[in-house]
Amino acid sequence: MKKTRWLGTIVFLFTLAFLLFERASVRSVTARSESPKNIYLLEAVTRLIRNDYLEEKDPLKIMTGSFKGLVNSLDSYSGYLDAESTARYEAQRGSPLFSPGIVFFKKFGAFPQIVGLIEGSPAEKSELKAGDLITEVDEKSTVEMSRPELDLWLNALEPSPVRLKILREEKTLNFQVARAPFSPQPWMFLEQQGMSGILKISRLETPCVDGIKAELVARLQKSARPLIIDLRNCDRGAMEEAGRLINLFLQAETIGYFVKKGGEKEFLSAPEEAALAKIPLAVWVNPATIGPAEVVAAVLRDFKRAKIIGFPTVGLVARRDYISLGDGTSILLTSGVFHLREGTILWERGAEVDTKLDPSDQDFAAYLKRTQELFSTS
Q1: Which of 107, 104, 106 is nearest to 115 (CA)?
Q2: What does the angle CA 326 – CA 152 – CA 176 come to, to the nearest 5 degrees?
Q3: Are residues 257 and 159 in the same domain?
C-alpha cells in the first residue's frame, strides 16, 4: 500500500508540473521540442507504473485522465480533448450540425444539468425537463467530461438519435432523443399587442444582424412602443455578432472589453450610428442565456438602454483558444474574460436582472405579464 500511495503521489506531482510547464508555452507545442527533463520524467513514471504497480495499467490512459482532470478543473469553458473527441471537434468545426436542442451547464466533477430546451426541438418535445442531470450520453459517463466535450457528443454531423441517461430527483431515466438541424433562421419576429413586437434570437451567428437590418429595422423605426428581445435559451454565437446587435440600439466607442493574460485588454465597440436608438427595450433572459447573449443583455442594461427580465445568467463570457497538442489530442483554453466598460466582470457572475421572476413560473405568459407591468408604470 505504501508503494501504491508513493506511485500515486509521483504521478500527480509530475502531471501537475508537466501541465503547468506546457501551459506556459502551449502555443508553441507543435513547433518546439519538449523539455528533455520532462520527457525523462514521463518515461520514468511510465516505467514505474508498468513494472511496479500492483495492477497492469495502460500509462497513456492514466495520463489522459490526469490531463483531463487538471485542464477541465480550470473553469467551465476549458477542456482537454482526447484523440476521439479531438477528431470529433475537427469534423464538426464549421459544419452544419444536428442537435437534440439541449442547453446545459456543467461544473468540474459534477453531472451536467439541463438549464433550457430549445423551442421546437426534439428535446422540448420529449419528456426531458430543466433541472435534469445528464449522467450518460451514448453510454459515455459525463462526470469527467468538460462542458465543451459534452457539447461535442450531444451534437453530430448526422441526424442519428442520442441516448441519454438522466437523473431526476432519485430516479434514473433513459431517453432516446432525435437530433434535428440547428434552426436555419437565427432570429424570428413575432407580433405582440401593445408592443413593437418580440425579436426572438436563437443564435447570435452571421447573418443574424444582417437579416434584422434588412427585414426589420425600417419597420421598427416607426414605432415608439417597447420592443422585447427574447434571449432565452440563446447559448451559441460570436462576440462580434453580439456587438453588431448592440450597435443597433446604441453607439459607443467602448461597450466593454476582454482581459487577457498579463492584463492586456481587447476592446469592443459599437461604432456605427444606432438605427434603433430611441425604441424602448425589454430583454428576456434565463439560465440558458449563455455567452454572447449575456453580453447583449449586460451591455444594454449597463447603458440603461433596456430593462432585463428573468433570471441572472451563468457568466460564461470569455474568449477561448483551440490548441492542437500535435499527438492527436488538443486543449480548449480560456484566454480572456469579459468586463463591462467600468470594469465589472461578467465571467462566472453573469448578467444581472432588473425584474426577477418566480422560479416556479417561467413560461412565456409570465415574462410577458411582468414586461407589460414594467412598462405600464414607467
Answers
A1: 104
A2: 145
A3: no
Q: How far is CA 244 from the centre of its chain?
A: 20
Same domain, 271 and 362: yes
Same domain, 141 and 210: no
What residue has cell string 457572475? 349
Nearest C-alpha neighbor of 337 from the set 66, 117, 8, 75 = 75
Per-residue pLDDT of the chain (378 residues; tens, 9 = 90+): 444 444 444 444 444 444 444 444 333 333 334 455 565 665 676 667 666 666 655 555 656 777 888 889 999 999 999 999 999 999 999 899 999 999 999 999 899 999 999 989 999 999 999 999 999 999 999 999 999 999 999 999 999 999 999 999 989 999 999 999 987 789 999 999 999 999 999 999 989 999 999 999 999 998 999 999 999 999 999 999 999 999 999 999 999 999 998 999 999 999 999 999 999 999 999 999 999 999 999 999 999 999 999 999 999 999 999 999 988 999 999 999 999 999 999 999 999 999 999 988 889 999 999 999 999 876
CA-based radius of gyration for the chain = 23
* CA-based nearest residue to 115, from 97, 93, 134: 134
Pairing between β-strand 197-201 and β-strand 227-230 as defined by DSSP bridges: parallel
| CA–CA gap between residue 229 and residue 286 (Å, rounded) | 12
63 and 172 inside one domain: no
- Count structural domains, the chain: 3
| CA angle, 189 then 368 then 371, to 5° | 105
What domain range includes position 151? Answer: 96-181
Same domain, 206 and 288: yes
Residues 363 and 270 in one domain: yes
DSSP string, 340-374: ETTS-B-TTT----SEEPPTT--SHHHHHHHHHHH
Tell me how far apart the alpha carbons of residues 235 and 142 are, in angstroms, rounded to a whole number: 20
